[in-house]
Prior knowledge:
alpha/beta, 2 domains, two-stranded antiparallel ribbon
Amino acid sequence: xxxxISRRNFLRGVGASSLLTPFAGSLSxxxxxxxxxxxxxxxxxxPDGCNPNQIWPTGEERNFQFASGxxxxxxxxxxxxLIFIKGLNxxxxxxxEPGMRAMLTNCGSLSTSSLSSIDQVVADHLSxxxxxxxxxxxxxxxxxxxKEGGNSQTRMAYRNGQMVTPNDNPNAIFDLLFAQEYQDSxxxxxxxxxxxxxxxxxKGHIAALRQRLGTEEKRKLDAHTExxxxxxxxxxxxxxxxxIQLEHPNIASYHSNGNFSQVLRAQMxxxxxxxxxxxxxxxxxxxxxxxxxxxxTWLGYSDGHHDLSHAQFGTEKAQRFVNTxxxxxxxxxxxxxxxxxxxxxLVPGTSIxxxxxxxxxxxLGHSTYHSCSDVPFVVSGGGAFEAGRYLDxxxxxxxxxxxxxxxxxxxxxxxxGDSGSGFGRLEML
Length: 429
């Protein structure tokens, strides 16, 4: 079943708590939002590395192309929306399972027993700065990621040393996140009336507070009062035709190979809509797991995914692996376009994509050699880095990428994970 949520109800669905917090004595708390920092992080993972002969773009930093027939060619349509990074190495790490542990943690020579992955670090930070009191700290979505339980092959996210389990069931996740949005317009009208009362009460508090403030604090308060008025106007705006479509996945068996592509599409839609309804501001989509043994039946192959990743270059099986990777590129392009299609409730006039950092990560570079050197990363989204670039960083440890992203969210850190990999951000980014 498909549910169409109008723009008015969409804005109401975001929640009224964001109207109150700025007046609780911490105007500086929301400084990150007014300074143009990204509001969300989305991590996208696909397994078993790449064929190095099919990886790299051609051309210069701002004038590059993905060659015809290669792994990344389907990204050509969104080339101006991404940064393709070459030259990142994992510190003191090689092979599948170590690469999986290190990918988001930069654990290096350290155990993951006390570490957190970049998504969880950002989630913890945003959970302390958000005005939305009902916000989920993070959302972990899987596609055949949890089919074999929790182990070093199946987990990429860690929080304080504990593996974070992805949920492979899009039906259950959808029901959990969007049950409220099923309610009829009458319910929405009641909610809207209650939230209008919140606005009225808040405006009364502002008037009383203003009498006790100095000139500079009055200026700040007046600026926020204007924002409050704009949001009130949006809540009471007449209906317009821009709708948000919520469609229940209704996937009978989410661990059936025949449903693999449908599950991935559902999880991508869920992540995007979770952002659009401000259910969470950090999400990950884990496609499979390292040493991914499933047959690639969704592309018509009986071969196992991991077996294809080790096929000798130039063989039919190697081409099948390239085709599989191209399919992943098509899915990533869809995800970017989906994020671009949704209005951002936190920043009117922009899209979810405009204020979200999206990272496509892999646990291996050269799949045949089990190498964690020269691992390709794709960074997309707005709010932080100049897009439309191909960056060859030479040879840098990938922990510097996580430092750059952490700093983009306002975190004050100069190293991430094992500091033996060095300090500082990825300067070219």
